[in-house]
Amino acid sequence: MIFADSLSRLGTESAFVVLARAQKLAAEGHDIINLGIGQPDFRTPEHIVEAGVKALRDGHHGYTPAPGIPALREAVAADLHKRHGTEVNPDNVVVVPGGKPTMFFAVLMFGQPGTEIMYPNPGFPIYESVINFSGATPVPIALEERNGFAFSAEDVLSKITERTRLIIINSPANPTGGVTPREEIDKLVAGLADFPDVAILSDEIYSQMLYDGREHVSLLQYPEIRDRLIMLDGWSKTYAMTGWRLGYAVWPDAAVDHVTRLCINDHSCVNAATQYAGLAALEGPQDAVHDMVAQFDERRKVIVRELNALPGVRCADAGGAFYAFPNIEGTGMTSMEAQNRFLDEAGVATVAGTSFGAWGEGYLRFSYANSTDNILEAIGRIGKLL
């Protein structure tokens, strides 16, 4: 078989590689604590599960409109108005199977040879992977520990060229837990007035996971860029629904038809029962969300404290999501060496910072989507190894 050259440019998500290794070791009888994979360790709330089951029993077995059932798109618009105080037309909401299709579709719309797309580094690895796949040139936005892993608007604006087509930002961020403050977003939006042809993809999948009174600033709140803004969010993290595969984006008017055709060509539609479960999530009680975030907050305090007590390790306070991103340079190991040794010798799965881009060297990602007891045991094992 002769495969297309473009496949050689497609990367992967290393957290799943680590997960497979960890599962293999566990199957062989090793005691493994997984602090690598980025998914809530909570069950999907029962009323959401029941809504999905009821949808199947009620006969919702067939195709739905490619952008999603109207009731769900309306519920998304209502939820965004409630949370961000901004009006969203349900016709601009497109429901997709998870967060990645929005990333893929946005990059494919704007990326081609001769163009540039900016993305956070360290950042979610699929950004860079799909940019490379499209043939565009990836231009990293460096996220640095000294800035709390927030992007600098001045830095972003200075990198825009006549070839720039799309800027991807992510706050709260994976893998760092960094949260970009309003003043930097204000500066970015103001500066983008000089670049009216540059589109923005704002990945806000962790928008409801913030700590210590930090504020989530949605780019939907800036009317001056709404005609070129794609805002990504979904159910996976907020409602512990990773396996349901359900996400959405708000698209500008000019892009809605394009993304709808991409949906039709790619996956036809999201499965019907999952959409009814998503509707129940948005319109039902939110207690489980608040309880889950409160537990993440307690774990966050524990893991940051314990990591900072390790020799050769320092860990900035995580502002959002459920990740800690400690600096491990003082251990004398590279990120990949630390990842491999912690798994093979201590039985603790983490993800090397370089899995999220070159700027991640010297760091590891720890997911605290695990019990406090397991977190304490895992950090204790690492401490003994160090």
Task: Looking at this protein, list some descriptive labels.
single chain; 386 residues; alpha/beta; Aspartate Aminotransferase, domain 1; Aspartate Aminotransferase, domain 2; 2 domains; three-stranded antiparallel sheet; 12 strands; 13% strand; globular; L-aspartate:2-oxoglutarate aminotransferase activity; aspartate transaminase
Number of strands: 12
> What characteristic shape results from the CA principal axes?
globular
* Termini gap: 47 Å
Order of helices and strands: HEHHEHEHEHEHEEEHHHEHEEEH
- The number of helical runs is 12
Percentage of helical residues? Answer: 25-40%
The biggest sheet, with number of strands, parallel, antiparallel or mixed sense and barrel status, is:
7 strands, mixed
Adjacency order of strands in the biggest sheet: 2-8-7-6-5-3-4
* Domain unit count: 2
Say which CATH homologous superfamily of the largest domain is assigned.
Type I PLP-dependent aspartate aminotransferase-like (Major domain)
CATH topology of the largest domain: Aspartate Aminotransferase, domain 2
Proper CATH architecture of the largest domain: 3-Layer(aba) Sandwich
Strand content: 5-15%
